[in-house]
Amino acid sequence: MRIIKRLVSAMLVGAFCFGLINTGSYAGVRQHKSYAGIQPIEKHITDPEEIKEYLHSQGEAYDENLVEVVQYIYPDLENKKTDFRHSDDPQIWEEWFTTNLSVYTYTDWNYLLKEYSRPAGKVSINESVSITNKIEVSGKVKAQYVEAALSVSTSETNTFSINWENTYSYPVTIKVYPKYEVKSGDLWEDDVWYDDYYGHFTFYRAIGDDVRVYKR
Q: What is the pLDDT of residues 8-21, one digit of tens each?
């Protein structure tokens, strides 16, 4: 396939030299999608032993004041860019590919989205939170190159709903954190004659949120 691509690319280069191809400039599109009306996968953890296992999986020590964990995940989010050509990279024969790609879920406990304090009794929360995709790069990697390789939008903001209620015999503090699907790997330019290594990237796609309930 790459031999065929190189032959086609060479033909395109030749056509460009003779002025037969006129490439336009395209800017990246910042997208915002709302999933407030979509039913997520919802998981509740209330058993102390399960909470202990959960905290261990997150690399945290057991906290007896953590009484409930609620996870909301929207696994089928579409995150496609309709056009990933950019004004600073207009070559239509330019392609990108990844190696050593790993995919996993991750909750950012350093980013507190929301915090609520509620008295004892029935607690009800019904509102939306917005989480923006993000990316970390090294070397010569740029966000638009990763967008082209993965067909994603690194600047998209997704809005998720929190619809949940419970009754407690003590006052509680509720904290909401963003949850991501992470894709991490090495980026290469699929060049006409040879492939160039550009560097490493880690892309965070917002897929939901984690809610923790603490006894006060």
A: 444 544 444 444 33
Distance CA 155, CA 55 (A): 30
pLDDT > 50? residue 210: yes
209 contact partners, CB below 8 Å, separation of at least 6 = 71, 72, 113, 129, 131, 160, 162, 176, 177, 178, 179
- Residue 84 pLDDT more than 80? no
Domain count along the chain = 1
- By the 10 Å C-beta count (0-12 exposed, 13-18 middle, 19+ buried), 164 is classed as middle
Please give the DSSP secondary-structure letter assigned to residue 89: B
More confident residue, 145 or 82: 145
Angstrom CA distances, 182 to 49, 67, 202, stand at 28, 28, 7
The one-letter amino acid code at 176 reads V
In the chain, the amino acid numbered 134 is: K
In the structure encoding, which two tokens stand for residue 130, read together? 């917005």
Query: Is residue 20 assigned to a domain?
Result: no
For 176, the domain range is 26-215
Instruction: Check which CATH number belongs to the domain holding 134 and give it.
Output: 2.170.15
What is the pTM (predicted TM-score) of this model? 0.72
